[in-house]
């Protein structure tokens, strides 16, 4: 996926998100909330 750093890609992989199609399917806000729940002190709004 373009425009994602190594850490962001790892966080998304934890959720089974590997393609932009997955992002579209679940929605960026929903995915952000899931990542934020797992990494509350590290995930920022930049992930959106």
Structural account:
With 48 residues, this protein is an all-alpha fold. The protein has one domain. Helix content is 56%, strand content 0%. The protein is built from three helices and no strands. The protein has helices spanning 6-14, 20-26, 28-38. The longest helix is centred in the last third of the chain and has 11 residues, at 28-38. It is globular and about 25 Å long.
Q: Main attributes?
A:
about 50 residues, about 55% helix
Secondary structure topology:
Layout: H1 6-14, H2 20-26, H3 28-38
Distance between the termini: 14 Å
Q: Count the helices. How many?
A: 3
Number of DSSP-assigned strands: 0
Give me the Rg, rounded: 10 Å
Q: Give the overall shape, derived from the CA principal axes.
A: globular
| Average pLDDT metric | 93
Short structural description:
The chain has 48 residues and is mainly alpha-helical.
């Amino acid at each position: 996926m373009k425009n994602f750093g190594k850490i962001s890609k790892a966080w998304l992989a934890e959720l089974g998100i590997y393609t932009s199609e997955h992002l579209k399917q679940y929605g960026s806000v929903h995915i952000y909330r899931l990542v934020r729940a797992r990494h509350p002190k590290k995930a920022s709004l930049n992930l959106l």
